[in-house]
TrEMBL record:
It comes from the Bacteria. It comes from Paraprevotella xylaniphila YIT 11841. Residues 5-141 form the KilA-N domain. SMART domains: KilA-N. This is KilA-N domain-containing protein. Pfam families: KilA-N.
Length: 291
């Protein structure tokens, strides 16, 4: 099975084997690593696959999608599932039922893999919240695969690493030297300047957002949830603010300028449906643009 891509959930890389017709396989072993001790992955998967609800789900999936599935063997397992003496492994399930939805794979990307439908079900067994983050990252991967422009320009990563560096460099070179403060307090200056941009663009600080969204804040920050249009404007604001800092313009004046800039640019981008057009660019349009 190939090619293999990676998505990141809970700061853990999870392998995804891309197949034709959206029949992708996701590594269950990696999913366990994101939620538990990796040494227990095999036991956790084995405990999951032996439950009655899992056996019924797997059997139903195979009945729908696998014409060579051995239904008689499935019925036998379904009757025994839930009994204290019932044991099951991925290899046993595959060998005895001719299943295709879940497999064990050796080699560089070894582990237990399952069709995305089954992987999402396994994700729900691990944690409903984890399942949502897994689906979100999988969808992001598919969007980048289906849109070459998005693949070349992962907006949230690139925009956060370009003009933000200009912004922090301007603070370091032009604001920090004028203050006799410790390294710890320097961080407060950086955070204060970042929150000035947040207020000018979003209307609230990072702390305000975290308090209003406690569950989301466990995994994301406010800028992770921003739209593409907002990120474009934020990138422009960081660049412009760095120039105003270099020119010694007072903070209250900079805020007024940036707030007006945010409103004007967002209005223009939203009016022209810039985000929609970016997301809907087709492969053919992208090839023409390159030519």
């Amino acid at each position: 099975m190939s090619p293999t891509k990676k998505i990141t959930v809970n700061n853990t890389e999870i392998s995804v084997v891309l197949q034709a017709n959206e029949n992708d396989y996701i590594c269950l072993t990696d999913m366990v690593k994101a939620r538990d001790d990796s040494s227990r992955a095999a036991d956790i998967i084995k405990n999951w696959i032996r439950t009655r609800s899992t056996i019924e789900f797997l059997g139903t999936w195979e009945t729908i999608y696998n014409p060579d599935f051995k239904v008689v063997e499935f019925d036998h397992f379904k009757k025994e599932a839930g009994l204290p003496t019932f044991t099951m492994s991925v290899n046993s399930w595959v060998e005895k039922t001719n299943a295709i939805g879940i497999i064990s794979k050796s080699g560089r990307y070894g582990g237990t893999y399952a069709h995305k439908d089954i992987a999402f079900e396994f994700g729900a067994a691990i944690s409903p919240v984890f399942k949502l983050y897994l689906i979100k990252e999988y969808q992001r991967l598919k969007e980048s695969e289906n849109n070459p422009l998005v693949q070349q320009w992962d907006v949230k990563r690139i925009l956060s690493k370009t003009n933000y560096q200009l912004h922090t460099d301007a603070i370091r070179d032009n604001i920090i030297p004028k203050l006799s403060i410790s390294k710890t307090k320097e961080r407060i200056i950086y955070a204060t300047e970042a929150d000035m941009l947040n207020l000018a663009l979003f209307g609230y600080t990072a702390k305000d957002w975290e308090e209003a969204n406690p569950e989301l804040a466990k995994k994301l920050n406010m800028r992770d949830t921003a739209s593409i249009n907002q990120l474009v404007v934020l990138s422009n604001m960081e660049s412009y603010n760095s120039e105003m800092i270099k020119n010694g313009i007072a903070r209250d004046v900079r805020f007024s300028v940036l707030h007006r800039m945010a409103k004007e640019q967002l209005h223009s981008l939203d009016k022209n449906n810039a985000e929609y057009r970016f997301r809907k660019i087709s492969s053919n349009d992208n090839n023409n643009a390159i030519e």
